[in-house]
Amino acid sequence: MHSFEYRHGELYCEQVPVSRIAKEVGTPCYVYSHATLTRHFRAYDGAFKDIPHVVAFAMKANSNLAILRLMAKEGSGVDIVSGGELFRALKAGVPPSKIVFAGVGKSADEIRDALKAGILMFNVESSAELRAIDGVAASVGKKARVALRINPDIDPKTHPYISTGLKKSKFGIAADRALEEYKLASSLDHIEIVGVHAHIGSQLTEVTPFVEALKKVVALVESLKAQGIGIQYLNVGGGLGITYSDEKPPLPKDLAEAIFPLVKDRNLTLVMEPGRVIVGNAGILVTRALYQKDGEAKRFVIVDAAMNDLIRPSLYSAYHDIRPVSESLLARPKHSVDVVGPVCESGDFLAKDRTLPEVKPGDLLAVMSAGAYGFVMASNYNSRPRVPEVLVKDADIHVIRARETYEDLVKGETIPSFLS
Ligand code: LLP
Questions:
Q1: Going by CA atoms, what residue is nearest to atom 23 of ligand 1?
Q2: Which of 68, 75, 204, 404 has the fewest beta carbons under 10 Å from its own?
Q3: Ligand 1: does its nearest atom lie under 6 Å from the Cβ of 58?
Q4: Catalytic residues
Q5: Is any ligand 1 atom within 6 A of the Cβ of residue 33?
Q6: Which positions in this protein are listed as binding pyridoxal 5'-phosphate (predicted)?
Q7: Of ligand 1's atoms, which has the minimum distance to the CA of residue 311?
Q8: Global model pTM greater than 0.95
Q9: What atom in ligand 1 is closest to the CA of residue 103?
Q10: Rounded distance between C-alpha atoms, residue 128 and residue 251, angstroms
Q11: CB 152 within 8 Å of CB 200
Q12: Which of 41, 33, 38, 40 is nearest to 12 (CA)?
């Protein structure tokens, strides 16, 4: 459920016509709905109300400060993967006691900053990293709370680039080596074992892979207990999918119901790291058609947004629904078109072979489900300034990130004097 709907003949975000946003802010721009973000967070958090839990929003999906503040106000923590994300999270007011830190390549500086901030735990991905964290913790006179990330070798049946829990993946520690690694962890003076972590992939549209992974993790918790290693937190990661086209992913409450029997009466606090399911359908990318071009074999609609603004179609062949902002376009004759951007690459497209009503230059289009892994993956390729982000609340428009300027593009660059 989201708050982008046709009303009075045009697409609205909450009580604001998208055309008004385009007029005031220009295109391309990302638009997020406050009501949808709030509803999604509450649906997720509420689904787990009968289990002690921490929701740590996976901020890699959308790390705008305003979105993070909104999440923090709703009671969310965050899952971070870099020093930059830690910086943003703290700046947005996320309590350090609700921050978990994942990723295979944490640097000593990042570890130090996180220890100083007093985060809830590190999700550790290798024995080398465990030793590094122990060393840094010793140098700052702290004990690092850790969970080991277990690779349960479960196929999440999603895109290979976003599957993370298979043996061939770089993530986590093989389940059959976990006990050994936990013993190593318990022997290190500056490490405190608090949890087990597993995240198997993203955009999962079935509950079964979650359950299979969790069964393995719970079995590990039992073996650890037998060895005298107590676990307080069980982190099941993120990964719940959303509807981009006609997928029917489970609802948070379906996931909670499936998980509940496995974790109840075990004295565990669940940690969850949802990203996409919270923000994905709470955002759109608004773009304006520039030209129509009839190629030899295809018709192209050339728009002002490109792969540098939203890379998911180019990178994962991801499907994003494209809707005209003015409902009147729906009455026009339909054609199969490629919706492409101005970037100089054949891989620059937002949709391929898509049946759309005729789009004329000047028409506004909404690229749907763009709230997650949209702006955060944007780049300045082709020296295109990154686009603004707008948060709509009721009838108000808030620009939460300004459009970059040409000066922003060259910020930090210098021409050495020998070239002058
Ligand atoms: N936790 C960990 C450890 C993760 O690696 C991820 C995502 C999440 C949580 C959040 O997963 P979510 O709930 O959003 O599925 N750029 C790709 C997605 C990459 C996901 C990486 N890890 C895309 O656009 O589809």
A1: 373
A2: 75
A3: yes
A4: 344
A5: no
A6: 239, 273-276, 373
A7: 24
A8: yes
A9: 3
A10: 37
A11: yes
A12: 33
Q: Is residue 419 part of a domain?
A: no
Specify if 416 maps to a domain: no
Rg (the chain; Cα; Å) = 23
- State phi, psi for 329 to the nearest 5 degrees: -65, -25
The CATH number of residue 355's host domain is: 2.40.37.10
**Residues spanned by the domain of 153:** 34-279
Q: For 32-46, how does the pLDDT look when each residue is reduced to its tens digit (9 = 90+)?
A: 999 999 999 999 999
Mean pLDDT, residues 50-63 taken together: 97
pLDDT per residue over 246-302, tens digit each? 999 999 999 999 999 999 999 999 999 999 999 999 999 999 999 999 988 899 999
Residue 162 has pLDDT above 80, yes or no: no
CA 139–ligand 1 middle distance (angstroms): 32
CA distance linking residue 104 with residue 321, whole number of Å:
33
239 labelled ligand-binding: yes
* Final residue in a domain of this structure, among 241, 258, 279: 279
Whether 93 and 25 map to the same domain: the answer is no
The number of angstroms, rounded, from the C-alpha of 200 to the middle of its chain's C-alpha atoms is 14
- Which residue puts its alpha carbon closest to atom 22 of ligand 1? 202
Let me know if residue 77 belongs to a domain.
yes
In short, whether 238's Cβ falls inside 6 Å of ligand 1 is yes
Rounded to the nearest whole angstrom, what is the distance from the C-alpha of residue 79 to the centroid of ligand 1? 10
Residue nearest to atom 9 of ligand 1 (CA): 238
Residues 310 and 357 occupy one common structural domain: yes
The reply to whether 272 and 374 lie within a common domain is no
- Please count the structural domains in the chain: 2
Closest CA to 305 of 253, 355, 367: 367
In a domain, 361, yes or no: yes
**pLDDT single digits (tens) 368-393:** 999 999 999 999 999 999 999 999 99
